[in-house]
Amino acid sequence: MNLVERDEELSVMEGMFDAAMAGQGGVLLVSGAVASGKSALLRAFGERAAAAGALLLQATASDAERDMPLGVMGQLLLGVGSPDEDMAGASRSPGEAAMAGTGRRARVTLPAAVVTEQCGIVLEKARERPVMVIVDDVHHVDQDSLECLLYLARRLNRNRILMVLAESFTELSDNTRFQVDFLRLPGCRNIRLGPLSRGGVADMAGAYGGERWRTRPLVTHLHRTGGGNPLLTKALLEDTAASLADGDESGLDDCVPGEAFERAVTACLYRVDPALQHIAWALAVHGPQASPAELAEVLGVGRESVHRGLTALGAMGLLGSGWFRHEAGRAAVLHSMEPAHRARLEARVATVLHEHGRAATVVARHLMLAQRIDDAWALPTLIEAADRALTDDDVALALSCLRAARDLCTDERQSLDVRAALTRAAWRVNPAIGARYLPDLTAAALAGRLGQRHSAELAGHLLWFGQVDQALAVLHTAGRGAAGAGLRHRLDDIRLWMDRTYPGLPRTDRPEATGDVLRAPSAARSIHDRVATLAQAASDPSRDDVVVRAEQILQGTRLDDHTVPMLVATLDSLVLADHLDVAAYWCETLVKEATERGAPMWQARFAAVKARIEVRLGGLAAAEESVRTANALVPAEGWGVALASLVAVAVYVKTAMGRLGEAADHLGVPVTEAAFQTPDGLLYLWARGCYYLAAGRPYAALDDFRACGDTMTGWGLDRPALVPWRTDAALAHLALGDRRRARALAEEQLALVGPGAAWTRGVSLRVLARTLAPARRLPLLGEAVEILRETGHRLELVRATDDLSRTHRELGDAGQARALARRARQLAGECGVPAPEAPPSDTGTPSDRDGTGAARPRRHPVELSDAELRVATLAARGLTNREIADKLFITVSTVEQHLTRAYRKLDVQRRTDLMAKITSAAAGSGQRSKRRHRAARHPA
């Protein structure tokens, strides 16, 4: 690559070369930061001098050869062309014997004869033609070669010799004699190479990739990241070209440092003095808040050395304002360290930061990467940092600190405290992570070795995973110990939560509350107590203060690990009381806060509540998405007994959408038996019953609905708003042809609901209407539609509107039937459920109906094809489409086509209605088969 912004320096060099050609030699000292382009400049000038007829003698000094006597002079004399034996003799000196067998050479004064012999060769060549002596990295020159160079420099004023020496002026170990002795010579000049300007960087970019690379954004990024260092800038250009080759069209708008940049930074780092390396490493490990005083203490050097080192790193283009210009630069410096050295440096940094009183979270970040530190302050610092990180919603840092603390623990009690803290922190991400510690914590709690605060938390964790017996034992043990008022309140809170979560727990098994919380004045009542009071109010239709009570809790409660279950319960109470709009607003607000604070488990809990709200509102697609979100945030093993509720929503949504195969897949997810002691288990039974009913298995559905009823009655929670099991059981009885029992269940639920505009009343009226003659259905269905429209339950509104449309059709009101059918199809589309079948345009004449307006039976039974009959019969027996396809060796698509035609011919909408009509269809098909058989035997 061509030299950029070095014309002025080349002009000076050419002027001095012309003077040397005329017999006036001199010394040119070229100074600059590491990788500032000194070597490229010397190489370019050397080529020009050689082309002009000068003898070019070149050498490069190295720190590795600093103790090699006359090493640099040996390189220079190789260009003279002397015989090997003469060169070997000239390079020998008394100092060689002094360094034999040792790592460093003992300083021995170089004899004058050797200096004269070495330099005489060069002076002799200068009589023949001009000589150009170039030494790169002269600051690493060995002492004997330095003596020779100084000898030559003092004799250049009358010789055709130009000596060009390049040094890094930012080195910490400056050779004072070298600088003083050379710079005081009258024929010596010094030029310094600075970083490239923005224009110089633009020239480099244009030379590398053409004019289109000179864009302002790219040049700005190159200059800011590379600091004008030619080597770093060239590496950034290579990385930009690589990104363009990979198809990244944004490469010319931004430069992203890559492998070439990392290699360039590493090369710069290993070309500097080791002391400067250590400063760069210490700075990269310490972080952007490092002060020179702290770095000096970490490295055990003076502040002035650190200050000079930082200045040197800045001149290299690696730092800007005392910190790395780009994080990739810091990463490259860190990667250049040996792991063991970094671990030691991290430990030293952690110790210094602790002694300087830095925040625990700052110190802990280094402790976790350091070699083991057994000092007494290390473990408390990690625990304090974990608490601070949790408060700041940095769960990842908290877990890392606690894992490091766990590995440092030697005391059993401290180890238990750390495991309890690990469980609490992991709960915010995925309870399954902390579940591994529960057995050890439980054993310690039962043995009285776990603190009471941790025991209260442990009981809640055990209840989450359905380990009720262990939770009860832990609470009994904790309650026997002495505790302050705060801890007694905490234990009472757990007991109140247990009452709500496990309502079926026998009273004899429940730990007794102290009563302090229940007797406290309202201003001092715990959130658990207020949520319990809210739940009672939500179950009483006559109460009108549910929203006020709920919003007082929601507005006055900070979202944290302890309050999430209570906030979920508050939202559930709003749903139970049918305040869906309020519940949806607050649920969305809490989801947003949980997302902003980076708590996956909180997000998942509120997403599950949102799914239940959407089901009530009829937004099945939104409910499906919420379930998917909850499952993505926390896997099934982390949900404990609450998994039953999540699976229930998924099963109900898939069933309502007509995707029975997917619903069956969700039922294959294992749910713990303990879940059926909770309200979540009720939802699971109810959803599974709805699936069985839709799949044509009314007996199985009835079993689940009755199990719901028996459980709710036994718990004293027989509330239709929680699970309307009676109306669903009534639908199962209707599918079995037991209209009388269906009507009794619907009327029983209607009596429980009472008057008002509750959605459960609308559902009860709709199901009750299905047990009555068409003429008696209209007022019930009309009221049901009004209630469901007012309460916003769109899915139930679809069903009620469709039933009302069919009733009008049966009564001969075709126009009203079609209008209602269109409305039902529109609502079905909004809900994401299959649209009800449109009523036929010809609904029959009045003579086709009896005196009540009901349609008379058809004169001839409906005839199904043999294939349609086989498919419909299997569907009526409860087989899924996939099972039918496998049994009949046909595709699922063929099954769906046969069922669609069978539904249309039999005038049914659901599988549950097939059973009542399949017999007559079979009879019709049988008669047709007989006619075919006779026709085949007696052809016309």
Layout of helices and strands:
Layout: H1 7-21, E1 26-32, H2 38-51, E2 55-60, H3 71-77, H4 84-91, H5 95-98, H6 112-128, E3 131-136, H7 143-153, E4 161-168, H8 176-183, E5 188-193, H9 198-209, H10 216-226, H11 230-245, H12 259-269, H13 274-286, H14 292-299, H15 303-315, E6 319-320, E7 323-324, H16 327-335, H17 339-355, H18 360-367, H19 378-391, H20 395-408, H21 412-427, H22 431-435, H23 438-446, H24 452-464, H25 468-480, H26 485-501, H27 516-519, H28 527-538, H29 546-556, H30 564-576, H31 580-596, H32 600-617, H33 620-633, H34 643-656, H35 660-667, H36 679-694, H37 698-715, H38 725-735, H39 739-753, H40 759-770, H41 774-791, H42 794-810, H43 814-831, H44 866-876, H45 881-888, H46 892-906, H47 914-937
Parallel strand pairs: 1-4, 1-5, 2-3, 3-4
Antiparallel strand pairs: 6-7
Helix pairs in contact: 6-7, 9-10, 9-11, 10-11, 11-12, 12-16, 13-15, 13-16, 13-17, 14-15, 14-17, 17-18, 18-19, 19-20, 20-21, 21-23, 23-24, 24-25, 24-26, 26-28, 28-29, 28-30, 29-30, 30-31, 30-32, 31-32, 32-33, 32-34, 33-34, 34-35, 34-36, 36-37, 36-38, 37-38, 38-39, 38-40, 39-40, 40-41, 40-42, 41-42, ...
Spell out the key features of this protein.
single chain, 940 residues, five-stranded parallel beta sheet, 4% strand, disordered C terminus
Description:
- It is a single chain.
- The chain is mainly alpha-helical.
- 64% of the residues lie in helices and 4% in strands.
- The chain contains 47 helices and seven strands.
- It has a five-stranded parallel sheet, sandwiched between helices. Strands 6-7 form a two-stranded antiparallel sheet.
